[in-house]
Design a protein that fits this description.
Immunoglobulin-like; five-stranded antiparallel β-sheet
Length: 318
Amino acid sequence: MKSLLTLVCCLIALITNAQTEKLNKFHLVDKVTNKPVITSVAIVKAKLSITTEKDGVFIIPGDLKKMTDSIIFSAQNYFDIKMPLKALSTLDTIRLTRLAFKTTNTESKFTRDTLLNNFNGEDVGYFAGLHEDTASFNYLQLAQQFYIDKINTKLNTLQIERLSFNLDDKYGWGIYNNPRLEHYRQIEFTAFKLRIYDINDATGKPGKDLCDSIIVIKLRSSERARINLKDYNINIPHKTFFVAIEWMRDYYNAHYTGIVIPNLKSRFISYKPAIGISPITGKKLNIWALNTNHDWLPYATFSPFGTDLAIKATVGYN
């Protein structure tokens, strides 16, 4: 926990110049139960975001009354809260209101299935989530939009390709014998949240969650996540849906990525995992990105080549 709070303080201090001022500590809790809630905390204009740990605690340094930015608190199954940073000056607890989840699951037995967005995983060579040109990757989620020619189907499985390094010692790099490189032994470890969204009929963007369970995927050295979702009974009511990766922007997933171009050397804090871009180009862009203002926007960084994320989905139907 201390490492996470130190990271948060260092990031926010860059925009507040408040390194020597007091630390403002807050608790994010369920409004009814008062239990801590793991929450995504985003500072909008500064494009900074972290994910709290299980205790729901976060810290902001400096004089809150002088801050002009806005902050958004977001947790699955809860209403988002957006407020001016200075409004926190009179608070020490933020209470989140739980959403009433209406299930769309059915008791149908699905006898057939179909594979969506098929590709050869060995051909994946581009990845989203590290940095973009000379800027850090500031999106909170990336979502792949899928299409199927039937309604009321069931999402059964997913396969997600991510960037993976093979940093063992077979090449004689001395990783396990060199104390300075010891931390690379855990470079493969990562965790992320999986979100499944219905379409927002009014905007065509990701809408409400189709699964009320919080699905956290943990990976070690594998470059591929194979996820069985049958027990979650996720019903897809329309002919399109979205599968999203939600980054857990915490100390566990944080690492530095660097760029070196003429006259510029920069290091950015990135968060694992880096998600693959499909090697097959589609006719339209099917990737959406959630920014720190919680707006869903088309993710065109890899266009015109990268129209889809390297995510396969198996859907059951009758």
